[in-house]
User: Fold these one by one.
Assistant:
Number 1:
Amino acid sequence: MFARVARLFTIKTKFEAFLVIYGLGMGAVERGFHYMQLYPGVGGKLLFACCPVAVFMAGGRILHSVEVTRGAP
């Protein structure tokens, strides 16, 4: 039963990966806007820049893991 539920949360295709990355990106930009309101000036802009960079790194890892599990080079 647990295996059937776990399969629902497994990213199997690149399309699913792109949807997850899109959601992460939208959340990161929203968090970045909050940082800019909380910390006006250069500090807020630096924190805003860190949010999408984290999504880029996670997105690359997600796409790579989908390719590896499918057996693509």
Note: The CA atoms of residues 15 and 49 lie 26 Å apart.
Number 2:
Amino acid sequence: MTLTYATLRIELPYVESKKGRRAILNAIKDRLSQMNCSVLDISGEYPKEATIAAAFLSPDEQQALQKIETTERMLQSRFPEIETELEYETL
């Protein structure tokens, strides 16, 4: 069993309010939850950036990497206007 912990840093230069930020973050968190990830918003109050933490279990490291790649593709296809940086660690 492989535990993967990922941190997603998001730049939101076009967001003007916390309400707009929350709408984008909720959409991302919903997508990650549908992929069987435990998700938590760990960002501060600044509306132009956010950080989301996600964790999931996989049978092996190869399937964990596939899920990370799927997550990156999902972010690029569903949210192309948002700049993201995904860091992860497998245990």
Note: The chain has a mean pLDDT of 92.
